[in-house]
Amino acid sequence: MSKEVLQGTLDLMVLRTLETMGPQHGFGLAKRILQVSEGVLELNQGTLYPALLRLVQRGWITSRWGVSDNNRKAKFYELTPRGRKQVAREVADWSGTVALVERFLQSPAREK
Amino acid sequence: MIRARFMHLLRRRRLDTELQDELRHHVEALTAEYQARGLSLAEARTAALRDMGGLAQTREAYRDQAGLPALEGLWRDIRVVLRSIRRTPGVAMAVVAMLAIGIGASAGVFTVINAVLLRPLPYAHAERCVTLWSRWRDVDKTWLSAAELLEYGRSSRTLEEAAGWSLGEATLTGHGDAVRIRGAAVTRNTFDVLGASPLLGRTFTTQEDRPGGSKVLVISHALWRAQYGADPGLVGRSILMNGDAYQVVGIMGPEFRLPTDFATDAAGATQLWLPLALDPVAALRTRGDRTLYGVARLRPGETAASASEDLAAMTAGWTRAGLYPSADRFSAFAIDLRDDVTGTLEPTLVLLACAVGFLWLIGAANVVTLTLVRMEGRQRELALRCALGASRWRVLRLSLIEGLLLAVMGAFLGVGLAAVGLQVLFAIDSTILLRPDTVTLDWRVLVAVGAATVVTACVISLAPAWHAWGLNVTDALKDAAPSTTVGGARQRVRFVLITSEIALTLILAIGAALMVRSLGALQRVDLGFDPSGVFTARLSLPEGAYTSPDAVTAFLDGVLERVRGLPGVTAAGAVRALPLADPLGDFSLQIDGASEASVAKGAWQVMTDGAAEALRQRLVQGRLLGPADRADSMPVVLVNETMARRYWSGRSALGRRIRVGADGRRPWLTVVGVVADAKHNGVDTPVGEQFVVAHRQWALATRGQPVRSMTLVVRTSGDTEPLAGAMREAVRAIDARVPLSDVRTFDSVVRGSLATPRLASGLLSLFATMSLLLAMIGVYAVIAYFVSQRRREIGIRMALGADRAGIRRLVFGRGLLVTFTGLSAGVVGAWFLTRFMRGMLYGVQPTDPAIFIGSIVVLAVVAMLASYVPAWRAARIDPLLTLRS
User: Fold this and answer.
1) Total-model pTM
2) Nearest by CB: A53 against B26, B51, B65
3) What is the Cα–Cα distance from B298 to B309, expressed in whole angstroms?
4) Interface pTM (ipTM) of the complex?
């Protein structure tokens, strides 16, 4: 698998992570995405922040300042109701796409 | 989404610090994690930063996400341009000043044009209206007689309806002080034909507009407000006019005025209107009495030209039928209403528009030159930008932004200049333009200025941008080294610009000189009278209180006797129509001894004794009117030289007799004197036949009414200032009900009649001076720049033995070449263009050689001075210093 983040998938990863783990700060999100991808994804952790801002601008997530586990000021992101719907929609889209591609991959090769 | 981005754009500074905090937190957390895995602090930090990727890139990406990159790019460009402007503030200021002059002058003239030519007339169907005029053997444009007007309205093929009016004055009493105002007697349909309806009440009915109809009035909005406090209850009530009660039936809207009220020399617009009440039967007997203005609505599909043909055919038919003597060559014509209202000013305004256009072009050429010079200085910067990857589009954009920025600054300053300039103009002379109240900067002017600004911006930035477009980066970076001279193509552009500037300036200068000469000629015209030291005031007697000619005579005699007794007064009298203020119309005449068929005519003037003396009219033969010419003495008349020549050619006019009008029962008037021709309807209007009847004898001569409205003319050897009060006093002592109006010096009347040529010559001179200044700056700048670019070359030449005089010749030669090429082009241009001014010139030919030569000499001297200074400086270049640097 390519180590580059597929265009558009970062959004889904972020949204999905927030859905499963609740409010997170940027560092937590980056760590979690790395964990889940089991090191396959070499995320340039800085690229996460413009993506977060984009999601905020779209109204899918909101941010607020809070205190992290190690007692530091950090910005926490969480899903908005619209964001939740978006996750559902994107997951469905993605599953659909995957299923479609799957079908092509699993059809037997034509016999000679 | 865009909105969110825009909000973020506004809050970008806070967003920036927040991101800073966020990233710091991330790095610290990551560092802590690496430390926990056993790395040292420094190692952990390095590893954390590596994982984060480039922080600068992150911030950049974040910022792009936060704002609107295109908008910010624009802002960045504007800041670049502002920086570059700030680096050379002198040049930028010069550019803005030149643009302000060009745009300001254009805005000022356009404001006037807008007010006079573009703003619609206050009539519903102005485009379907024409004015009607008569033409005679030697009168190009004169009034209509009642019979003609009625006939045009009744049986013209091209006119739907014709209306007419005559101007007069009235005294309103019973509401505070008596006021004297102008009014008009109008045919019932005048308002309909013009397409104007009253604000309140109604206009006249057919019953009211006939002889013996009821006494009714329609008044103007201004009068309604000033005199009656805008009381809506006024409609239906009666007011006292000339001592009689008239019922006000309607009030017109604030916009309404008669077409004649637009004329420049009218001291005021008409404020009230009453029915003209033409008598169709009596009209047939007085075909020669032309006192009416006519306006008509065209039938659909007809034009002023087709109506003129129609009227000419009608009048030709009348002449064939024997109603008019064929020798008179009587005809009639129609003029488009708008053309007629603005006709006298239009050529002047077109001329001024061309002049400001030239001024603007000269300013723009100067600015392009300066910008090119600046661009040359920034050659290296531009090349560097291109080399570092700036697109040509980006460079073009920078140039356009710079142009727009400068043009906008120039436009703001220019509009300010225009506003102030117009105020100053009106403060200097309020008679200079009709209706100064309507000359305002409205949206049309602002749109025009905006358009001019954009065009200016494009003009001044496209040349440099085009220049940058073809820029070869490598060459430019090399060329920018100060060791070489600038390429020939760019030099040529500048020299072509400056040559055109000189050509345009010469055309402007010649145009201005022609107008100034023409004005001078107009001011030197022998008027036939001497206006200096004469004071005038109009007075009018109420008809009800002064019914008999004797009462009018007694009043005037009394007033004049008192006025003549005032200190400093050397002569005093009264005239019916003041020269250059109240136009004279023609009266038909009978000449004793001439055949019945040849109906004569002449402009009719009425004077008291003493008036000709006060005006210093020259007596050619016989005597002037005297106190002995009374109602019971022999009726006499004075004629002017033209009239004497026309009707008694070759022989003395003294003792000959004429009769006023066609009525055979009127008495013969004996010619007792011939006076020199005097201007009356305009300084540049040819004088026709004119006769003067003694005021005391007028009622007798016409078997009609005495003239109740007269203008006092008082010659004084002293100060005119205290005279106004003394004259009022004299009138009040005899009858306090009689108001005095238009109290002014005769000089101011004469000045007012020359308002248009004065406006034209004044503004043209101003524009020509400005353009001369601009051209001088332009020549200086180009030659000086030529020198600065060639410093090194000049240094080498000198090091190789060229002497200072030779260097001076080299540079000065450049200036001479440019100057004379420009002057030659300018002479050719002026030769072709000034012919269009012919109609506006008086007493000077459009190709007057003295003016051409004078203007060329002045411009040549100025241009040579402007190029001599840099030449002189070039010759003082120290070769050692230049070569070493």
Assistant:
1) 0.67
2) B65
3) 13
4) 0.83
